[in-house]
Amino acid sequence: MKALLDLDRLLADGEITPGQHARLQRLAARETATLGYGLIAGFGVVAVALATIALLPSALTALLLGLAVAGGGLVLRLAAGPRWHFLAGLWAVIGGLLAAGGLVLAADGSALAYVGAALLLGGLGVAARSHLLTVLAVLALASALGAESGYFDATYFLGVQAPLATALLFALFALISFVVSRRLPADFAGLALTAARTGVFVVNFALWIGSLFGDEMTFGGAHIGIPPVAFAVAWALVLLGAGLWAWRAGRRWLVNLCAVFGAIHFLTQWFERLGAAPGSVLAAGLLLLGFALALRALNRDGAESA
Q: Pick from 144, 270, 141: which is nearest to 199 by CA?
């Protein structure tokens, strides 16, 4: 479990000694550097994998080469010392992305191909203790239901073809992953929690798309249309309930996520209904400032009562 603490404030209040303050600062600096290296390496790995897939002559070649590279990474992790784990993890990620990309291309992007890619990435993520591979595995599973993103002509897009099914299935997935994370050893618990958090992201994106375009489903020949307003109300209730639970349980990550998606939800629905007129923008900004002050007061009250 990670905690966000103001070390200078704790020192001024006498909660920690100067020696503890200096030691915690050194540990925090090391953690921040590790995070920075990880982010840079992550972007580099994705770029290498995508470029390699584009350059290879066939999907089968990408699949076989990816499996070989990932296998080499796992062998390196098991056979070499801890200082080689970072390099082994890079090999596993690059190989996993190559193999998953080759599998999806070979099967022409079918749903089963994405499920296979998710299983492959998830298995490699567990073996290599890779949070990046775990995230990619969950996103590949979402793609099996039609979730997609892309870029063209200075335009980004996010698509979810079945918002209701995606939201319900990944809410269940996130809940199961979270419960499982409470019962696993530390290394595996972190991976399960990463999977749960990624699932929560997918749920919010699905509800966001549903609140804009609604959804259509067919049961036994009967056509059922779900209006956007139903998604908008459900999303607001989910964010409110999850945010209150996270605040009481001390889950800061989920509190922040609910706050961010709550703001996105509010602005999306406001401008969809009222338009981006100067008056509506001013009112939205004032309400968001009030929401931020209320959230700050809740956090302060929770810290004082702890």
A: 141
- Taken in order 6, 9, 14, 20, the sign of the CA dihedral is positive
Contact 147/160 with Cβ under 8 angstroms?
yes
For 283, residues 6+ apart whose C-beta sits below 8 A from its C-beta are 270
pLDDT per residue over 38-73, tens digit each? 556 656 666 776 677 677 667 887 788 888 888 888
Instruction: Scan for tokens 């964010």, then name that residue.
Output: 239
> Is the CB of residue 35 less than 8 Å from the CB of residue 283?
no
Burial of 71 (0-12, 13-18, 19+ CB in 10 A): middle
Percent of the chain whose predicted confidence (pLDDT) is above 70: 74
Phi-psi label, residue 90: left if phi above 0, alpha if psi -120 to 50, beta otherwise = alpha
pTM: 0.73
Look-up of token digits 């770029």: 47
Confidence grade of residue 154 (pLDDT, cut at 50, 70, 90): low
Q: Give me the sign of the Cα torsion angle 181, 186, 192, 195.
A: positive
Provide the 8-state DSSP code for 219.
Answer: E
In whole angstroms, what is the distance from residue 172 CA to residue 189 CA?
Answer: 18
Q: Are 231 and 256 in contact (CB under 8 A)?
A: no
pLDDT at site 23: 78
Kind plus residue range of the DSSP H or E element containing 218:
strand 215-219
Tens of pLDDT, residue by residue over 210-250, are 998 888 877 667 778 889 989 988 998 999 899 889 888 88
Residues 259-263: contacts with CB under 8 Å, at least 24 apart: 259/291, 259/295, 261/204, 261/208, 262/236, 262/291, 263/288, 263/291
Question: What three-state secondary structure class fits 155?
Answer: strand
DSSP state letter for 193: H
